[in-house]
Specification:
Layout lengths: L13 E3 L8 E3 L3 H13 L3 E5 L5 H12 L2 E6 L11 E3 L1 H12 L5 H7 L6 E3 L1 H6 L1 H10 L19 E6 L7 H12 L1 E2 L8 E2 L8 E6 L7 H5 L2 E5 L5 H16 L5 H20 L7 H14 L6 H13 L7
Parallel strand pairs: 3-10, 3-11, 4-7, 7-10
Antiparallel strand pairs: 1-2, 5-6, 8-9
């Protein structure tokens, strides 16, 4: 892959349509995040996105997929996740249930072996889909659709590539990021019961892998060295902070919200954020600001009356912790 194959990302706002459980929303790439995505594509390395909750880390991956015309897949990591869970899954309980059911009937040994073949209970996971869509489809069909099949956008083919979001990787033990690093470095992984490894199909672009962290756990140094890193941080000065929030709010609500409400909500969020930080707590951010504006425009569609409503509802959206003292 070379730079001529990596298109520039749009700087104008654009709509992200609803896909699966992801609702419709609007995104605008800033210059830094746009270059980070292009750099990760050029380097063929994962892009690790750091930032506080609600800063838009996950949406960045979805927006990149939409802008590039790629398939979007998302995998949320939890404390029990293992690297294998990103590659394949095996329905052991389903096989046990079928074995018990067949033991009660009259089946030949050949029928039992055929039905209980381990490959019938093997489902492709996210990395399998982005490495080799066609073989993942075949395996998904063989397993009887035991897991969800990704829904590609209209007109998509595997030659257009994919974006894989691995969300909240810091929740997992170190084995998961290390295993992910090995899989991405090799461009392949082995699967029990299959004769051949799953590897990147010919003609399929290297997937863009976007990984998010909320910094709940330190990531392995070797893993960090192999990632490009984007830090999404709110500005540190009050004026720049307010301008960033207001810009984000106007992107979503435009003239539905009064200008005074945009400013007053940003100022209040700044004050509540400082108070939370003084207590060593996580302060409100982008997500809380958007939630507050959504409450205001929903409960009071008339912009001339919204300022009065703001004072009545802002505590519910911005103050997540008990008062100090």
């Amino acid at each position: 892959m070379n730079s001529t194959n990596i298109p520039a990302l749009p700087h104008a706002p654009f709509t992200l349509p609803a896909r699966g459980s992801w609702p419709e929303t609007i995104h605008r790439f800033d210059e830094t995040s746009a270059w980070a995505v292009r750099a990760a594509l050029a380097a063929q390395r994962p892009l690790l996105v750091r930032g506080e909750p609600g800063s838009g880390k996950s949406q960045l991956a979805r927006a990149a997929a939409e802008a590039l015309g790629r398939l979007f897949l998302a995998e949320v990591v939890h404390a029990r996740s293992e690297s294998q869970d990103l590659q394949w899954r095996f329905d052991a309980l389903g096989r046990l249930g079928d074995a018990q059911a067949m033991s009660a009937g009259h089946h030949s040994p050949e029928e039992v072996r055929s039905r209980l073949d381990q490959r019938n209970y093997l489902s492709p996971a996210a990395l399998w889909w982005v490495f080799d869509w066609n073989s993942a489809e075949r395996q998904h069909s063989r397993s009887g659709g035991r897991s969800a099949c990704p829904q590609p956008p209209a007109g998509w083919t595997p030659t257009k590539g994919s974006v894989l979001l691995i969300d909240e990787i810091d929740k997992a033990e170190a084995d998961l990021p290390n295993g992910l690093l090995e899989t991405l470095g090799n461009g392949a992984f082995s699967v029990p019961w299959l004769d051949e490894a799953v590897s990147a199909a010919e003609g399929t672009p290297t997937p863009l892998v976007v990984i998010t962290t909320n910094e709940e756990r330190e990531l392995p140094a070797a893993f960090l060295r192999r990632c490009l890193v984007l830090n999404l941080q709110l500005p540190k000065s009050e004026n720049e902070f307010a301008a960033a929030l207001i810009g984000r709010g106007m992107l979503h609500f435009k003239q539905r919200c009064a200008n005074a409400v945009y400013r007053e909500a940003a100022a209040q969020l700044w004050r509540d954020r400082q108070a939370a930080e003084d207590q060593g707590l996580q302060g409100p951010g982008h997500a809380e600001y958007i939630d507050l504006l959504r409450v205001v425009v929903t409960l009071e569609p008339d912009p001339d009356k919204q300022s009065a409503l703001l004072g009545k509802v802002q505590d519910f959206a911005l103050r997540k912790h008990p008062p100090a003292g």
